[in-house]
User: What shape does this take?
Amino acid sequence: MMLSFNQVLVSLPFKLMLFVMVDGWNLIPGSLANSIGLGAGG
Assistant: This one.
């Protein structure tokens, strides 16, 4: 039980990081343009 919990604990940040990376690359240009004032983020 402790071993499987440890595996989840280790793999969770990697999955989160991967999700943030994939999702972030789509969000960064929009938010960047928004902060500059181009309004590309909608």
In short: The helical segments are 2-36. The first helix runs from residue 2 to 36. The two ends are 47 Å apart (CA to CA).
